[in-house]
Each structure stands twice: as structure tokens, then as C-alpha cells.
């Protein structure tokens, strides 16, 4: 009887320990900052958010902060964080991958494509110069959308200059150093009053959720999600973040996400393959190359994948300049053997560029797994992790 009682309490203790461990599992959050919103970021205390939100949730939370939007966008594709506090395009990407919307700090706003007076219409931007912040900024998303509406792509322009601060684009416009730029409508209206007659609006975007948007994983416990939402609505001001008062329509985020440039569906010279094809090719000895970052590769990957990162600086465009990128690891592969290139799905350009580079260097059999790791996971296939 004592043995039975001892086993019962031992099992009960183990069960309670497991429940406690689960409840106390550390959460993670990422604060992603547009370079133009650095003033808001300076006001935001990461340590205060960790302590305040952690206390409200009754468990530890680690908060990171980054201005490297390309890295943050990759993190949304791999669901690296439980919560994102970020501009609209980052939130939009996360909402497509198992996250739900809490809200945003500011009302929706519009963006304008501003051109020099000598540029009649957006269509006349063909062969022109465009000034934008970094590639994954909201300004770049808006620029793509407004150009696409007129049948243009970045590849139709003579030059796309990526810098950090969009307001400097207006100065470049005034100096004749660029033909057009993208800014918030409110910034344009203030600048036009100060410098009338220098530029004009060529196109206007739809409504875009303003300020910081907050999203969290749908698969978190319901009571935990409620606590997170309540804290951001009522207590976020303690860490320097505006309260999450605005509740933009999810459709507005969807519209932003659709402006993000997806990779082409075909690649001349290579064969585009699905997860089932990849599985069979690997079984037959085809080399599978993971071109993502080392952090992503270690977190989870196709079991047989070898790590050869594609370090990307060129435009996310079919007209990308491969000389701006680094793919030196390609030299370790045999050009006469079949190879599969993969990354983080249809929005990730690394494997597309890797495939193009391999074809350009004389590889005989190139397979491009456009769906990448998200498609592999969705197919229920096994993963390897460090």
C-alpha cells in the first residue's frame, strides 16, 4: 500500500512539475523599428516591457529590438517570436503565418509617390530614379504597389537607391538627385508647404495601419493571449509604447502583404519542385541546399539539408545584381550533380537567386524548391533541429 501511495505522489509531483514548467515557459517578443520611427523606439524601454509584461503574465518574457527589417521579416516566416510589435508590413507577414492581431498604436495612414514636376505620371517613371529606405520598409512596399498599379516594376527603373531615411528622399528630389520618392502623406503636405512647386503627387496608396502593430501566436493559451492583449491596451504606456487603441481591419494588413514582391513561379533552366518531388529526389541522392541564415538552419530544417547560406543585398527582383550578394559556398558543390535550392517559401528570394547563380555558373541539373521549409512543414514531413 505504501509503495502504491509513494508511486501516486511521485507521479502527481512529476505531473505538477510538467504543468508548472509549461506554464513558466519563457515567451519571446520582437520590437521591430522602422528607421524613420527611431524617436518612438528611443522612448520604448525594452527592460520595462520585459518586467511589466512578465509580471502581468506571471512568467518570464524576453524582448528583443531590431531595425534590420529584412531579418525581422525572416523571423515572421519562421515564427521565431511569440509576439511582434512592429510596423504594418511585418505584422502583415506574421498574420499570414499563424498569428492574430491585437491592434495598432495609431490610426491608418496613406503614403504618396512624389515625383519631380518634370515627371508627368507614374508611367513616366520608366527609366527614372527612385529613392527609398531599406528594402523591407513600409515605404518600399508602398512603392512597389503604386508602380505595379501603373504596370511598372523596380526593374523598369534606371536606379533604385536604398538609404535609411525617407525624408532625405524629399531633399534628394529638391536637389535633382532622384526623380521620385515615397513618404507619408502628412510628411509630404508639411514639406510641400515649406517648398511649394518642387514636387507633385504621382500616386497615393490605400490605407495602411499606422504606428506599431501588435500580433501574437494563435496557438498560445487563450488566457495568456487575453492577458497579453489587456497589457498592451492598458499598460504599454509604462514602457514608452502608445496604448494599442486602434483596431485596423485585417483586410488592410492583407493588402499590405500582397504588395510584398513574391518570387516568380517559373525559373528558365531550372525545374520548380514540390515537397513530394523533393522527398523523392533526396531519396535518390540529390543534394539539398538550405540557403537561409545559420540561426534559421539550426532552429529547424529538412533533415538531409546542407547549409550554404546566400547572403543577400541585391534587390528582391528578377533583375537582381548578383555581384552585390555573397554565395561563395556554391564552389564546394559538384556542377555535374543534381542540386536542390531552398529557403523560406515563395516570399524568400535567396533560393531563387541561388538557383539563378548556379545556372549561371554551369550547373547541369538545378531544382528550385520555391515553397521551401513552410511547404515541407505543411506537408507533415519530418524536421531536424539543433
From TrEMBL:
GO terms for molecular function: thiosulfate-cyanide sulfurtransferase activity. This is Sulfurtransferase. SMART domains: RHOD. The keyword Signal applies. InterPro entries: Rhodanese-like_dom, Rhodanese-like_dom_sf. It comes from the Bacteria. Keywords: Signal, Transferase. Pfam families: Phosphonate-bd (PF12974), Rhodanese (PF00581). Residues 282-385 form the Rhodanese domain. Residues 1-25 form the signal peptide.
Amino acid at each position: 500500500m505504501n509503495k502504491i501511495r509513494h508511486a501516486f505522489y511521485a507521479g502527481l509531483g512529476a505531473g505538477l512539475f510538467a504543468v508548472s514548467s509549461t506554464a513558466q515557459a519563457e515567451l519571446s517578443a520582437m520590437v521591430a523599428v522602422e528607421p524613420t520611427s527611431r524617436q518612438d523606439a528611443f522612448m520604448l524601454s525594452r527592460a520595462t516591457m520585459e518586467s511589466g509584461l512578465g509580471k502581468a503574465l506571471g512568467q518570464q518574457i524576453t524582448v528583443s529590438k531590431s531595425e534590420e527589417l529584412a531579418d525581422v521579416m525572416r523571423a515572421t516566416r519562421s515564427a521565431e517570436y511569440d509576439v511582434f510589435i512592429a510596423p504594418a508590413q511585418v505584422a502583415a507577414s506574421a498574420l499570414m503565418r499563424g498569428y492574430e492581431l491585437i491592434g495598432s498604436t495609431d490610426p491608418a495612414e496613406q503614403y504618396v509617390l512624389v515625383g519631380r514636376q518634370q515627371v508627368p505620371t507614374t508611367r513616366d517613371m520608366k527609366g527614372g530614379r527612385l529613392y527609398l529606405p531599406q528594402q523591407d520598409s513600409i515605404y518600399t512596399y508602398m512603392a512597389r504597389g503604386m508602380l505595379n498599379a501603373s504596370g511598372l516594376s523596380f526593374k523598369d527603373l534606371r536606379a533604385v537607391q536604398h538609404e535609411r531615411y525617407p525624408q532625405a528622399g524629399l531633399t534628394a528630389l529638391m536637389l535633382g538627385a532622384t526623380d521620385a520618392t515615397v513618404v507619408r502623406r502628412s510628411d509630404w503636405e508639411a514639406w510641400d508647404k515649406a517648398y511649394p512647386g518642387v514636387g507633385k503627387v504621382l500616386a497615393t496608396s490605400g490605407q495602411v495601419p499606422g504606428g506599431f502593430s501588435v500580433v501574437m501566436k494563435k496557438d498560445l493559451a487563450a488566457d495568456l493571449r487575453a492577458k497579453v492583449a489587456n497589457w498592451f491596451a492598458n499598460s504599454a504606456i509604462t514602457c514608452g509604447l502608445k496604448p494599442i487603441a486602434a483596431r485596423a481591419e485585417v483586410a488592410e494588413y492583407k493588402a499590405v502583404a500582397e504588395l510584398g514582391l513574391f518570387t516568380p513561379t517559373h525559373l528558365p533552366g531550372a525545374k520548380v519542385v514540390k515537397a513530394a518531388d523533393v522527398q523523392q529526389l533526396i531519396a535518390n541522392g540529390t543534394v539539398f541546399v538550405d540557403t537561409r541564415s545559420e540561426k534559421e538552419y539550426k532552429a529547424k530544417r529538412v533533415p538531409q539539408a546542407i547549409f550554404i547560406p546566400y547572403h543577400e543585398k541585391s534587390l528582391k527582383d528578377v533583375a537582381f545584381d548578383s555581384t552585390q550578394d555573397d554565395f561563395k559556398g556554391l564552389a564546394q558543390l559538384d556542377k555535374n550533380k543534381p542540386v536542390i535550392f531552398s529557403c523560406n517559401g515563395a516570399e524568400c528570394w535567396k533560393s531563387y537567386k541561388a538557383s539563378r547563380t548556379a545556372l549561371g555558373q554551369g550547373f547541369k541539373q538545378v531544382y528550385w524548391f520555391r515553397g521551401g521549409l513552410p511547404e515541407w512543414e505543411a506537408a507533415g514531413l519530418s524536421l531536424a533541429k539543433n
